[in-house]
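Note to self: keep these together.
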Amino acid sequence: MSGTDFDLVVIGAGHAGLVAAAELRRVGREPVVLEAGDVAQAWRDRYRDLHLITTRRASQLPGVRYPASVGRWPGRDDVIRYLEHYAGTSGVEIRRSTPVERVEVGSSKVGIEAGGSRFTARSVVVATGRYAEPVEPPGLRQALGRLGDVIHSAQFVAPSDHRDGVCLVVGGGASGVDMARLLAGAGRPVFHHSQHPIALLPETVAGIPVPPVAGWLGRHVPPRLLDHTVPRLLRLVGSPVSRAPYSPMPSEMLQRESLPALDRGYAHLVDARRVVQLTTLDVAASGCRGLGLDGAEHRFRPHLTVLATGYRPALGFLDERYHHHVTARQDSRPDRSGLICGIGYQRALEGQFRRARAEARHLATDATGRNNPER
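Structure:
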C-alpha cells in the first residue's frame, strides 16, 4: 500500500486496538494504528492507584506475559509498561500523536482525516474505548461548584493533589468506590452518594481470586439462579460485602450493564464510619444534605467533590449512523461488509482484556473468511 492508501487502519492504541492489530496482522492483513496520544494513553490519564479488577493472568494479551514482579492485580503503571512492551513486539506500525478528525465510509473504501493528512483504507477498526469522554449529570457541577472544588474522576490523580477537608464522591461504580476509599484512607471525611446499591465483590475467597469465578458464572449460569446462590456463598465465607447495602442481585447488575467493584478496604471504611454512604443527596447554596443508610440526616459542605459518574465512547469523528454498528456486540452488527467495525466497547464480567482477545480473534476469523470466500 502507498503512504496514504492503507489495507487496514486501527483507531486507538489501547489494549483493544493493539490486540486487534496484532491478530489481524497474524492472518495476513497490514494494519496501521493511529493514536491521538501515546500507546496506552487512556491508562496514562487515569488515577495513580488504579488497579485492574482482573488478575494478571486474565489481563494478558496473546503471546506476551506480565513479568513475575507484577502482583496478582496489575496497577496502572504495570499496564502501561505491559502495553508498551506488547506494542514493541507486535510488529505493527503505530503512528502516535495522530488524532483522527473524520472518518467517511464509502462504497468500497474508508476515507480518514488524521493529524492534518488524509488517508484511505480498505477497512477500519475503531478502538477508541468505552471510557473516553467523561459524563456528568446536567447542572450538578455548577451547583456543587458554589460549595467547593469539583472534578470528574478522570481528573483525579491522588488525594495529595487536593486540599484537606470534607469530600463528596458521587457515583457507585468501581471508580467511585476507589475514590472514596483513597480519600478516606488519606484521612479525609468522605460522603459517598450512589443512586443504586453498590456492587461490591471480595478480591478473594479462601485465597481464590473472585473475578474469574464471577466471570465464568456470569457467562454460564442464569442470572436468577445467581440471585439465590451468590449472596448465600458470600455469607457462608463471612465476607463483609455479603450484607446490605452491597452485592445487589446479578440480574439487577446485568439489567443496568454494571460491573462490580472489588472490596480493597472500602467496606471496612464504611463500617468504621470513615465513609458515610448516602441514599439521597440535596444540594443548596448553604451546603449538602443527605440521608445515610441508617436513615440519619447528614448536613455538610464539601471542600472537594469527585463526580465518578461515568464515561461514554468518543466517536465524534464518525457519522452517527455507524455509532451503533461500531459499539454493538459483534454477533449483532447489521453490516458484515468489513468496511468498518469496532472492538472494546462491551462491558464484560470476565474482564476487558479477555473480552478484547476474543473479539480480536473474531475479527481475524472474519477477515480470513472475506479473503478466502470459498472457505
